[in-house]
Design goal:
It contains eleven helices and eight strands. By secondary structure, it is of the alpha/beta class. The protein has one domain: Spore Coat Polysaccharide Biosynthesis Protein SpsA, Chain A. It has an eight-stranded mixed β-sheet. Helix 2 links the parallel strand 2 and strand 3. Helix 5 packs across helix 10.
Length: 310
């Protein structure tokens, strides 16, 4: 367990936004930050040389409670270096990274997380649900995910092992020392330049840290694809192959780590149960198809098999 040393300003949250030409959605994010009931916030904008109104919008925005910090990143550093640049300017006891096309749904989310982390020193971060919306703020149908069974702490490694999904979301509020410890620092693997969240999650477990999950909706994420916005399409296509390779490598590490600790060191054995395994499988099933669609899918496959052999 990491010993948390208070070197930052107590209760202050530093929100790091790495951005490039995000004027279309930035205003909504800034407004949602200003609406937070927790008023001890600083907003750090790391701009990669925007050619639209992003910089003017941020510099002219009237912050009533939050403290703005602008960083010129026109050298276009990679994503890891950009977030590190923003973190180096932070003054808060807690740090959060958020995309310019996301915004807070719950006005009390920051206050809830800060209060929890202040009371529970053994927890390193808090995260909640994110709701997908279009550019008008209209929510898409939320697929049931059995969120109430998502477990806290080291136990969630089994969930990743079973479902193949990383539990923590982008709305995580993290102790600054933990962010510094787990977020990638250097280019020791090209994968982490595109998938720093995988590095963070791996380091989080390797350092035996614990998180808190809250099933409440914390943020809204604007779905670029479903909203008909294709400005990120070329970038996503370019990095898709590399990200896929990184994810496969990460999943191999998860499987090896879980199996080793389950059957050799037995770190996870006491927490493992058949009941939990069944619940996690149901959660994954419902996430991908919903139970109804899954039953129909299984039914069709059974019919195909019976036709083939009988």
């Amino acid at each position: 367990m990491v010993t948390i040393v208070d070197k930052k300003i107590k209760d202050k949250l530093s929100i790091v936004i790495v951005i490039l030409n995000g004027a279309e959605t930035l205003l909504r994010l800034l407004n949602s930050i200003e609406k937070q009931s927790h008023k001890f916030i600083e907003v750090i904008l790391v701009d990669g040389g925007s050619s639209d109104a992003t910089v003017n919008m941020f510099n002219s925005y009237k912050f009533n409670t939050a403290t703005p910090i602008f960083i010129d990143n026109s050298r276009e550093l990679n994503i890891v270096e950009s977030y590190r640049l923003g973190y180096s300017a932070s003054n808060g006891e807690y740090v959060m990274t958020i995309g310019h096309d996301d915004y807070f749904y719950d006005n009390n989310w920051v206050q809830y997380c800060v209060n929890f982390l202040n009371i529970n020193k053994n927890y390193s971060l808090v995260w909640g649900r994110s709701m997908s919306v279009d550019h008008n703020g209209v929510a898409y149908v939320i697929t049931p995910r059995f969120d109430e069974i998502i477990v806290d702490g080291r136990d969630s490694l089994l969930q990743t092992f079973v479902t193949g999904r990383i539990p923590t979301d982008v709305n995580s509020i993290i102790r600054t020392q933990v962010f510094d410890l787990c977020f990638p620092n250097k280019k020791d693997d090209d994968c982490y330049l595109f998938t720093p969240h995988l590095y963070f999650y791996k380091a989080f477990y390797m350092n035996n840290l614990v998180y808190k999950y809250s099933p409440q909706i914390a943020t809204c994420s604007i779905d670029v694809k479903q909203s008909g916005q294709n400005r990120l399409k070329s970038r996503q296509t370019r990095f898709k192959s590399r990200e896929s390779k990184c994810l496969k490598r990460f999943n191999r590490w998860i499987k090896g780590y879980v199996i080793h600790n389950l059957f050799f060191n037995k770190k996870l054995y006491r927490e493992f149960s058949i009941k939990k395994l069944v619940i996690l499988l149901l959660a994954d099933l419902s996430y991908k198809y919903t139970v109804y669609r899954a039953i129909r899918l299984i039914s069709r496959k059974i019919k195909k098999i019976t036709k083939k052999f009988f």
